[in-house]
Amino acid sequence: MTTSVLLDVDVLRTAIQEEYAEVAACPMKGFHFHTGRFLADRLGYPADRVDALPDSVVESFAGVGNPFSWGTLVPGETVVDLGCGAGFDTFLAAQMVGAGGRAIGVDMTPAMLHKARRNAELLGLSNVDLRAGFLEELPVANGTADVVISNGVINLCPDKATVLAEAYRVLKPGGQLQIADIIVAKAVPEDAKQDIALWTG
């Protein structure tokens, strides 16, 4: 099952990549959404975990909730982060699952992935695997993940049914899906669905 939206997906993806390349390069620039430590605190992330991370890991964080509030990760688990950005949630997951676990981050924005890879090296995390890809075509094998997380990214995808099907595909039987995202309570007009600026904002 797919969601039908009359929208040029390539144009949308380019606009999103441009927006989040700015978030990677200039996180303090000021956006229509919050970023960084202020946002992490506002969303209820434990202060001790966030305070222990360098600025470069936290500054480009632009989530909408805390996916870990849905459940605690267990040492040894494999976690897949859909839309990992500069790696904030991926790295927290990697620390939670420990050396015996693995955190796989997937993102389509080259600037964010570049920053995430630098941050992984900075933190010395050997259990992190960062991959370029789209959420509609995850570069992850079937039944890989004990937990799939995502934070404020699925709302940017027009074909949400396919994204969720992909998330289900990469989950192990009995695995958990822990999403923090934006929802709307009423139908979105067709002209609004076709407005790229509303998708990226």
What do these coordinates show?
There is one protein chain. A five-stranded parallel sheet has the order 3-2-1-4-5. 38% of the residues lie in helices and 16% in strands. Helix 7 (160-170) links the parallel strand 4 (145-151) and strand 5 (171-180). It has one domain: Rossmann fold (3-Layer(aba) Sandwich). The protein contains nine helices and five strands; from the N terminus they run ααααβαβαββαβαα. The mean pLDDT is 92. The chain is α/β, with parallel strands linked by helices.
Give me some keywords for this one.
201 residues; alpha/beta; Rossmann fold; five-stranded parallel beta sheet; 5 strands; globular
The Rg value, from CA coordinates, equals 16 Å
Oligomer: single chain
CATH class: Alpha Beta
> How many structural units, i.e. domains?
1
What structural category do the secondary elements indicate?
alpha/beta
CATH homologous superfamily placement: Vaccinia Virus protein VP39
Low-confidence stretches: none
Mean pLDDT: 92
Do you know the CATH architecture?
Answer: 3-Layer(aba) Sandwich
CATH topology: Rossmann fold
General shape: globular
Tell me the helix content. 25-40%
Question: How far is it from the N-terminal to the C-terminal residue, by CA?
Answer: 26 Å
The total beta strand count reads: 5
Number of helices: 9
Q: What is the ordering of alpha helices and beta strands?
A: HHHHEHEHEEHEHH
Order of strands, main sheet, comes to 3-2-1-4-5
> Into which percentage range does the β-strand content fall?
15-25%
